[in-house]
Specification:
heterodimer, A: mainly beta, 4-stranded antiparallel β-sheet, globular, B: 5-stranded antiparallel β-sheet, about 55% strand
């Protein structure tokens, strides 16, 4: 399997549920990212991990909890979400190479709906 | 504050009708500008990286150019399969890999 794979593709959950999104990359990259994409809004960066260490938290509410056990896997743990959290959640990965930013490669996302 | 603005928001072309998409940016210390294509129900697909003003990249019917204030994505003789949303993103002086995205241009090419 190649590229960036996200599971599940669709998720419907109640506001009191706890669920997790999973992302796996097979590109040999060492940086991973979570983005939120809402209708009519630009992609919004949530978290960045470089070599398994979190280097960016873009003021994300604590009801979103990321986990990066190794450079190939990234999770987003969800609990007590709000209806406004319904969106497409995208995972991406990239190489960290020298001073120039490298392109990020995206999965197809998890479509999350909060009831 | 770093900002990216794409125009137009939507564009309808006839097959073969060439046009350009614009990406204007304000960023502290541009380190790179990226173009992506996104199809409905899919994640963004990487197209080009531009690192410095004057740089150009080409791929099939697409050509991306960069100045100190904006980037253009030129589409020559488009086909219906070029229909998609095109996203522009910039990386600034922060070295955490943070990308600032524009809201995208949705292109529809009619046969």
């Amino acid at each position: 399997e190649t590229g960036v794979t996200q599971t599940p593709r669709h998720l419907v959950m109640g506001m009191t549920n706890k669920k997790s999104l999973k992302c796996e990359q097979h590109l040999g990259h060492n940086a991973m990212y979570w983005y939120k994409q809402s209708a009519k809004k630009p992609l919004e960066l949530m978290f960045v991990y470089n070599f398994k260490e979190q280097t960016e938290n873009n003021s994300v509410p604590s009801r979103f909890s990321p986990e990066c056990p190794n450079s190939s896997h990234l999770f987003l743990h969800l609990h007590t979400l709000q209806p406004e959290d319904s969106a497409l959640y995208l995972c991406a990965s990239s190489r960290v190479q020298g001073a120039l930013p490298q392109p990020q490669h995206f999965g197809d996302g998890t479509r999350l709906s909060i009831l | 504050e770093d900002q990216v603005t794409q125009s137009p928001e939507a564009l309808r072309l006839q097959e073969g009708e060439s046009s350009s998409l614009n990406c204007s940016y304000t960023v502290s210390g541009l380190r790179g500008l990226f173009w992506y294509r996104q199809d409905p129900g899919k994640g963004p697909e990487f197209l080009f990286t531009l690192y410095s003003a004057g740089e150009e990249k080409e791929k099939e019917r697409l050509k991306a150019t960069l100045t100190k204030k904006e980037s253009f994505l030129h589409i020559t003789a488009p086909k219906p399969e070029d229909s998609a949303t095109y996203l522009c993103a910039v990386s600034g002086s922060s070295n955490t890999g943070k990308l600032i995205f524009g809201q995208g241009t949705t292109l529809q090419v009619k046969p």
